[in-house]
User: Fold these one by one.
Assistant:
Number 1:
Amino acid sequence: MYSEFNPYPKSKQLAGHQKEKNRPKFKVQKPKKPKKKLEVYKGRSVPDKKTRGKISKSDYELAIELHGYECWVCGISQGLECHHVVPKGYSKARNGRGVVYNLRFLCTEHHRGKTGVHQNRELMQKLQDEHERLYGEHFYKDAWDLFKENLIPTPTKECYEKFMKSQEGR
Ligand SMILES: [Zn+2]
Ligand SMILES: [Zn+2]
């Protein structure tokens, strides 16, 4: 009697694959990314880096009052851009915020052009040194930075301003 060598019938071998093929296609929904948890410090939620880097209208206007609406390098008053003296995410230790003492106007060329601060580390440093001399070593920080460094008791505008005033010209 002829018997086929068939340890596992073909019908059964295919069954599994067939099943796979006929399975209705649907995208597996990736679990939604959980919203980034805000850092909590002493029971207060600290705003994220992006928010703290933003320049508010009032800080922008204060910066005009403080430095004049002119390029720090060449003095022109057209097509100016508002530069973070210590840029946002400058280094691990230094995160420039969108605060008035960390802002300075630059023309397009002296901002992002070939001779601008973003292409010239020395020039960037020179501007940072000037702001440090004028407003103290904390010039690029916001109320939250000062609060976390225990330099002010609460992260309010009042405490921030009072502290920054005490630092001027030191
Ligand atoms: Zn310029
Ligand atoms: Zn800039």
Number 2:
Amino acid sequence: MHGHSAVGGYSGNAVKPIALRFIAELGQNPALAGMHISAMGGVESWMDALEFILLGGGSVQVTTAVMQYGYRIIEDLKSGLNLYLAEKGFSCIREAIGLGLDTLSPSTDTLERDTVVYPQFIRERCVGCGRCQISCADGGHQAIRLDENRRPRLNGKNCVGCHLCILVCPQQAICPGTKRIRPKG
Ligand SMILES: Cc1cc2nc3c(=O)[nH]c(=O)nc-3n(C[C@H](O)[C@H](O)[C@H](O)COP(=O)(O)O)c2cc1C
Ligand code: SF4
Ligand code: SF4
């Protein structure tokens, strides 16, 4: 403005871990028990919204994602959330509010790391885009190769159960599968 610039403003998906932490702290605060918490900070998808609800959000606000993609993403968010809750047997979204608070660890350092949960590929949903293979390979583990039909195949020896592949799949064609306890040493 008038030949000057400034650095400021922080919103969107990058702010989500910080926002989740604060919503969880509000959700766990006994002085706020029963109070409505309106959550926000980096919500783009129904999965983001669900994370906030599980940590105590009674409603969820969306700003940056609507500015970037338009109001239509709210319909996707609602239908994704409804489908998920129905699949999991919830009769009402209120039943999910704060459900994750009791099992929230105080930090990532205290999480158990000896169990590997392998990804499971849902072949009917896969479109062969290869994002899971690229992310796993360039993320350092090289545990996925694409077969002759561009469908992912897992090399369990290299898989550490990080679930990066699940996060990047645009088709939700990967989900958590079988567990294995990592041998000691
Ligand atoms: C361009 C822009 C303008 C904003 N204006 C306001 C505002 O006037 N008052 C306010 O309380 N928050 C404002 N916010 C903050 C948002 O309401 C929201 O809390 C924040 O961006 C985090 O959510 P989000 O990641 O969904 O954007 C603004 C955010 C953006 C990106
Ligand atoms: S869980 Fe992690 S290591 Fe295993 S296949 Fe997926 S991205 Fe690779
Ligand atoms: S990212 Fe998903 S859709 Fe793409 S190849 Fe992997 S499993 Fe298939």
